[in-house]
Amino acid sequence: MPRRTMIEAIRDAMDVSMARDERVIVYGEDVGFFGGVFRCTQGLQAKYGKNRCFDAPISESGIVGSAIGMAAYGLRPCVEVQFADYVYPAYDQIVSEAARLRYRSNNDFTCPIVVRMPTGGGIFGGQTHSQSPEALFTHVSGLKTVVPSNPHDAKGLLIAAIEDPDPVIFLEPKRLYNGPFDGHHDKPVTPWSKHALGEVADGHYTIPLGKAAIRRPGSAVTVLAYGTMVYVAEAAAAETGIDAEIIDLRTLLPLDLDAIVASVKKTGRCVVVHEATLTSGFGAELTALVQENCFYHLEAPVARVAGWDTPYPHAQEWDYFPGPARVGRALVETMEA
Amino acid sequence: MADAGMLRFHVPEPEVRPGGTPDFSNVTIPKAGSVPRPEIDVDPRTIRDMAFSIIRVLNRAGEAVGPWAGLLTDEELLEGLRHMMTLRTFDARMQMAQRQGKTSFYMQHLGEEAVSCAFRKALQPGDMNFPTYRQAGLLIADGYPMVKMMNQIYSNEADPLKGRQLPIMYSSKEHGFFSISGNLATQYIQAVGWAMASAISKDSRIAAAWIGDGSTAESDFHAALVFASTYKAPVVLNVVNNQWAISTFQGIARGGSGTFAARGLGFGIPSLRVDGNDYLAVHAVAKWAIERARRNLGPTLVEYVTYRVGAHSSSDDPSAYRPKAESDAWPLGDPIIRLKNHLIHKGVWSEQRHTQAEAEILETVIAAQKEAESHGTLHAGGKPSTRDMFEGVYAEMPPHLRRQRQQAGV
Fold this sequence. Notes:
The complex is a heterodimer. Chain A has helices spanning about 5-20, 45-50, 60-75, 90-100, 100-105, 135-140, 150-165, 230-240, 255-265, 280-295, 315-320, 325-335, and strands at about 25-30, 55, 75-80, 115-120, 145, 170-175, 215, 220-225, 245-250, 250-255, 270-275, 305.
């Protein structure tokens, strides 16, 4: 089976979707001729023409707002916001318009758009190229929010997102674009070509939105993670020797609650991990759901490991990033509680 | 260098406030028929002055004059008059229904009826409007059933939107009327996106964007002009300048640009101003702009100069911020009276027939109202089910919503 980086897998998902359905349109800043600053759309304009893949003005509200109009017309735009940190000018269009169009018009108009954006830190991007704003989208009725953690999933989830009848926020952990980064920033990253999940089948396949995956089966403690934190958790489990069951949520909304509940009822312990800031983060929702659904199975308080409640710093990136040491400490404390 | 002194902060003020004498002497009104009608493929650079004039067809004597006249037959004009009268009567009845507690909120068009009624008649089936909350004439003039509008206003059991939207936030794809948001300006860039999609799809349908004077200050307005200009989108960019954004006079949004139409000039978009109370002028300019869009000549910006005679909404009281008699002093008159006088001047209408038509229209509107009220009003009679509240958030209900619906006991 061919090996692909996450960038290549994402590009392949758009390529496959554009070939299958001429309603699929791809655009964003630097997306056309150049192929995107992370090269996710490289070659698509040459292959499908400027009608299907083109450069947009630097206006996120314009990009998303026009995509909503295109979707109302009947196309299936898949647009790129260059960094998740830049999405805020489009937030009104996403929250007040895309998310509610089906509901407020009683299915008269719908909004099948995908808004792709690189998310997360670990690249010395400072406060404007490192944020993880997923909770700002999971809080909104009418949106679906997806965070893939590997090339195989990224392709299947993106095709599913493009084919979904509702708006999907597709957050791509940029630190994972070239390999399964586990938080050990001082060591080289294994390339996807040497990782099992770097195997990406040619052609069309989908991974349903709303289904989690167990990355590491275990019996001692459940770790709920997504994106980069899946590999950080794997490293923490290996380094502490704790038999953690690591669940990669893949889709935050709809959430695979059944998979979470089954695992926590089995292990009796739970650690929630994300890179985004702690307070009102998606971990708060996960923690609440775990206690609502698994309270009488819990042997220890549910722990959260997250980014500190500060803006994402530059020089102190690795003090901020919830790496394997912090996650490992939480695992040990949860086992000892 | 000479001392420039202290800096001064500038806040524009309207000419007159409550208690003062209305004064529109600063609004220059060109003579009807005096503004030329350029070819539709005109070089935009040669018609920049049109962004500062006002295209008018009907003169004070009730005659249609000049190069923009002569597009509509007597039958079409009589139909237009009926649409405007229907909208005004509809508004009066629904405003009253709101006061009677039959719904929570209403927004009327008083004085602005020509803009949406005439524009609709210049479109073709399949074209799409992205309206604000003050373009219900687009629906009336397209034959959308008044009963359905009222059902929506009452949020009753027959409401096509299942009680989910604030009154008057209609939606009808079938009638080329995009779902009204209630947030301002968002629809402007969406209209451009719809138009881009039509061009991408090699279609022949065009889009019409709508916005008020106040909301042109929103960034989505400027994004829309950038996208429309860059991609030469087949869209008509309408700005309805009714002088007032709730209590804020248009000078606060307009700033130093002179007119709202002038906003288009920097984008190379042909930008026209038209007498918004002149049914014939609105229709003629709409036709010109729509044809440009359909012939791949790109966007046109049209500013409709009109006046919001009524309150902003049923929750507003204009006497707190503008002179009570200001609407009487508005130099462009009333759109219904002007078209009526024109038709009388042409000999195809009379005061007597007008009075008779008023009575007929009132009867039709009341009949529609009775039918709508048989399906319930906001606080009485049939209403959408609680179960409906959970539907339509997504195409397929996700598990967490199914659980919440169970918790709600429906």
